[in-house]
Amino acid sequence: MRQLSIVFAAVLALVLGLAAAPPIAQAQAAKPGAEGYQVEWMYRVKYGHIDEWWDLFRKYEFPVLDRAKALGLVLDYKVFRPTQHMEETGRWDYRVEITYKDYASSGKVGALFNELFPDSATRKRDEKLRWEMTANHWDLPIYQVDVTKSR
After folding, report:
1. What pLDDT was estimated at residue 145?
2. What is the pLDDT of residue 27?
3. Over the chain, what HEC string results?
4. Global pTM value
5. Assuming Cys at both sites, which of 34, 50, 103, 141 could form a disulfide with 30, CB separation 3.0 to 4.6 Å?
6. Which of 131, 120, 112 is CA-nearest to residue 52?
7. Residue 84, burial from CB neighbour count under 10 angstroms (0-12, 13-18, 19+)
8. Which residues contact 64 (CB under 8 A, 6 or more apart)?
9. In angstroms, rounded to a whole number, what is the distance separating the alpha carbons of residues 117 and 148?
10. Closest of 151, 129, 145 to residue 56, by C-alpha
């Protein structure tokens, strides 16, 4: 019975400790004076797959971003591609900067895929293929720094 009490106390301490811990990946609110909630998507595509990857990305992502923009969920987005080569560890092939209306709007955009692409089996197959061709990817909330002000 004593061992059961010790185990229960340890589990309870762990649960309470986790509940009190701050969230690990909490989104940051936009800095004061910044318009919207900005996110940067970065993609590194496996060699030999850039054209096929780009075709699939354009097929699904831009119609959704354009629809989100028409609905006011996205204020703007820009796509960048480097013009020169770079060393492998820092290499990226596409960078997409998206400015959502606010953090809550960023969570609503995903539902537009089903609206615009009702054939979910084809979309899931295409997305699986695109992710198989993706060597690395990250999403990063960002904000533009006002260089005239201190931190």
Report:
1. 87
2. 44
3. CHHHHHHHHHHHHHHHHHHHCCCCCCCCCCCCCCCCEEEEEEEEECCCCHHHHHHHHHHHHHHHHHHHHHCCCEEEEEEECCCCCCCHHHCCCEEEEEEECCHHHHCCHHHHHHHHCCCHHHHHHHHHHHHHHEEEEEEEEECCCCCCCCC
4. 0.73
5. 34
6. 131
7. exposed
8. 109, 112, 113, 116
9. 45
10. 129
Residue 30 pLDDT: 46
Residue corresponding to tokens 């209306």: 101
Residue 1 token pair = 């019975």
Placement of tokens 């009702």 in the chain? 118
**Mean pLDDT per 10-residue section of the chain, whose length is 151 residues:** 45 38 41 76 96 98 98 97 87 96 96 96 97 95 89 75
